[in-house]
UniProtKB/TrEMBL annotation:
Entry similarity comment: Belongs to the binding-protein-dependent transport system permease family.
Protein's recorded name: ABC transporter permease subunit
PANTHER family linked: D,D-DIPEPTIDE TRANSPORT SYSTEM PERMEASE PROTEIN DDPC-RELATED (PTHR43386:SF1), OLIGOPEPTIDE TRANSPORT SYSTEM PERMEASE PROTEIN APPC (PTHR43386)
Organism superkingdom: Bacteria
Membrane topology, from the record: Multi-pass membrane protein
Keywords assigned by UniProt, alphabetized: Membrane, Peptide transport, Protein transport, Transmembrane, Transmembrane helix, Transport
First-listed, main subcellular location of the protein, grouped into a coarse class: membrane
Species, as recorded: Maritimibacter dapengensis
Localisation per UniProt entry: Cell membrane
Length: 305
């Protein structure tokens, strides 16, 4: 009897220790992708820079010093440590503007993902649970939006709303929303045929509970991956709109706007174009690498037993 009771008591403990927690399991699959881990650390670095930008930036990003226009970086002849990465045509410190530009990039990515994901998930849930005629109408509208080049559609929307950073974020959120609609609808249609949803219907669960409590939590994995990719797309699109003069307006230290202001000096002051471009490149690459790792960690089909 003692042996039976002891084995009975240790079984739950052994089961608990044998099965890792969700976060540990996620991290185990995530860290197998070296590129994703590097991308995650770079993302965290830029996030810290964005949060503490006022403390890290040596100068105000908009303050001008007309006596120090187009000063080269410190390692080049004529450069100095007062302006480590040089100055722009108006004598503004490049390092300070790049640091504050990280704030705008993360603001853009966060706002666009929240707007696009919220609208897209709600619309996708409605399409998944709606009658066939309503589902057809919603998806045909999404197909029409997807058939238009995303940057062109964003340009048209910003031209209608007016050039500003806020309107650029709204336009890009509208452009990215169909991806969430299609992804959510496909996940919902897959889940609706499963036993736990049928059981919930038989038990008398109402439609809002079925949508938001029963089905939606099981559709989040691909949506999280899409959110990471949308974050990088939003940064790229806002930078493109800023470069075309339809996004953030000067003197806002947004990376795309910095490129637009400096393009005429590209041949005689390479740093005013190179550093904002590198900031966009590294940030977007890091987020895309991190998105690949999220896909590998969250997709059960890719997990090895």
């Amino acid at each position: 009897m003692a042996d039976v009771s002891s084995s009975t008591n240790t079984t739950p403990t052994d089961a608990a220790t044998a099965r890792p927690g969700r976060f540990k399991e996620f991290w185990r699959y995530f860290k197998e992708n070296r590129g994703a881990v590097i991308g995650f650390y770079v993302f965290v670095f830029f996030l810290i820079v964005a949060i503490f930008a006022p403390l890290l930036a040596p100068f105000d990003p908009s303050s001008q010093n007309r006596a120090a226009t187009l000063v080269p970086p410190f390692w080049q002849s004529g450069g100095n440590w007062t302006y480590p990465l040089g100055t722009d045509p108006l004598g503004r410190d490049m390092l300070s503007r790049l640091i504050h530009g990280a704030r705008y990039s993360f603001l853009v990515g966060t706002v666009v993902v929240i707007l696009a994901a919220t609208g897209g998930i709600l619309t996708g849930l409605v399409a998944g649970f709606a009658p066939k005629w309503l589902d057809t109408i919603i998806m045909r509208i999404m197909d029409i939006i997807l058939s238009i080049p995303s940057l062109l559609l964003a340009l048209v929307l910003v031209a209608i709303l007016g050039p500003s950073l806020l309107n650029a974020m709204i336009a890009i959120a509208i452009v990215l929303q169909p991806h969430y609609v299609r992804l959510t609808r496909a996940a919902v249609m897959t889940e609706l045929s499963k036993d736990y949803v049928v059981s919930a219907k038989v038990a008398g669960a109402r439609l809002p509970r079925l949508m938001f409590v029963t089905v939606l939590p099981n559709c989040l994995a691909p949506i999280i991956v899409q959110a990471a990719l949308s974050f990088s797309n939003a940064i790229l699109d806002v930078a493109a709109l800023g470069f075309l003069g339809m996004g953030a307006q000067p003197p806002t230290p947004e990376w795309g706007t910095m490129l637009a202001e400096a393009r005429e000096f590209i041949l005689r002051a390479w740093w005013v174009v190179t550093f904002p471009g590198l900031a966009i490149l590294v940030t977007v690459l890091a987020i895309n690498l991190m998105g690949d790792g999220l896909r590998d960690a969250l997709d059960p089909k890719l997990k090895r037993s």
